[in-house]
Amino acid sequence: MSTFRRLNVNESGTVTVVTFADSKIINEDEIAELGQELYALVEGGKPKSMVLNFGSVEFLSSAALGKLISFEKKVRQSKSKLILTNIRPEIYEVFAITKLTKLFTIKDDEADALAVL
Amino acid sequence: MSGNWAWSVERQLASKRGAHLPLMEEILTQLESLGWDGRDYFGVQMALEESLANAIKHGNQCDESKVVDVQCKVSAERFWLRVEDEGEGFQPDHVADCTSEEGLEKLGGRGMMLIEAYMTSIEHNERGNCITLEKVRDDDEASED
Known about the structure:
The complex is a heterodimer. Chain A is α/β, with parallel strands linked by helices. Chain A has helices spanning about 30-40, 60-75, 90-95, 110-115, and strands at about 5-10, 15-20, 25, 50-55, 60, 80-85, 105. In chain A, the strands form 2 sheets. A 5-stranded mixed beta sheet of chain A has the order 1-2-4-6-7. Chain A has a two-stranded parallel ribbon with strand order 3-5. Chain B is an alpha+beta fold. Chain B has a 5-stranded antiparallel beta sheet, covered by helices on one side. In chain B, a hairpin with a 3-residue loop joins strand 2 (about 65-75) and strand 3 (about 80-85).
């Protein structure tokens, strides 16, 4: 397993559960690093379902949204599934304003996500 | 509503990625001390990030020979920001709609949409290289303090 600086990664059965190390996802260099770490999760090895837990995230920029959109595409291309969870109301509104609630599957918490993966 | 500002700042930013982050923190600290919180605070944070990062990246194309001029004024009720870059300018009507079905997966274009969602008023100059934003705090959030 690679070492991650922007992510915390845990395996729960056949599902990879990811939390974020930063409460503000805003610094462009860190966003680039975050993207590389997310991509590393789907590149190589057999595809696994993914849960991205946003419980620690208090703020994210549109640049971070762009990285999540690229990641979603990569997960879909690998025939895997991606669910976002534990999104606080302020962050959920960002997804709603940008209509990304249509692109991503969003559940309240990890248990809800694991129940459908 | 008071027309008096509690704090103001004028600054020139270098056109390199992340150059706006210290100023952004400085402004947010002032807002916090003035009692800003909740959705209003979050929205101002978003408007600062998107307008300043946009001026550096898309306006000045990260050309370090160019600067971004920033003016900001804050009070307990209002936030005002003017950001001017040295780029050629853009026309807001020409930004691709990234909420359309085919646009959902596109990577850019969301910054302006977020600014519009959170700010009370937005003005662009004719050239399109200067944006002026204002946020008047929601009455219920401002009166909770």
